[in-house]
Amino acid sequence: MEIKIENISFWYMSKRRKVLEDFSLQLQPDNIIGLIGRNGQGKTTLMKLLAGKNLPDKGTILYDGEEINKINVINKIVYASDELGYINRKLESIVKDYKLMYKNFDLEFAEKLLELFQLNKKVRIKQLSKGQRSLFNFCLAMATRSELTILDEPVAGVDAVSRRKVYDVILRDYIEHPRTILVSSHMLGEMENMLSHIVILDNNNIVYDGDLDEIRNKAYKVTGEKEKVENYIVGKNVLYKNIGALNSMAVVEEEITDNIREALIKEELAFENLTAEEYYVFKTTKTDSENMEELWKN
User: Regarding beta strands 247-252 and 180-185, do their DSSP bridges make them parallel or antiparallel, or are they unpaired?
Assistant: First the structure.
């Protein structure tokens, strides 16, 4: 299965705002992929386009060479978020609808998931909290076993214990039933153990698209005496810096080679690779950190 997004643009006409422009991406098949970014960076828009809920104003989205909005393609895709219509309907009636709509829907598995997350299928949608709505949609989506399973912020409003269960379910069910699972979040640290590939969005553009292991070698943190740190980062791509009166810290975007290690040791500077979460935070808040400094300038 191959999913290609080719040079798409998308406008929200009601808001007169362009969210994506000349945007391209190829999703790695049969992986759990993290779509990471802060709020308002286009994650939900991209996911709805992938699910065929919106159509691009320009460009194409292809699923095994076919346009994503064709019926035979749409039936292979499920999209889940915390949004739910039909607020007066009972959960059990919506479960029955999914059984009819998705040929691979596993009713027994769906009911086990509802029990795991303590969701009473006799209650109505309007009686659910935000977190429970997220969990209910998550349960339905996972039980469809769709070739492309799109989970838009599946832990929105969900407590820490249930979030851990969500991640465990995703990973275990992927092992049992391999498929492409796309998960959006702004909390990369919680999901690192289950992801094999990540796409980071910032300002509606891709700033990283690759393996999770590789991202840990994209940048490093250097700490030491103020003058030594300031001299070391001259001419380098600095994602973040905190220059103190005595000790200072900076985040440099480049791979640590043997030559760089030797130089850092020679300058008596401490260094360490970033975690994937740290790279994401520093990469997408570079401008913010610069603006923060302005708050304390006279």
Answer: unpaired
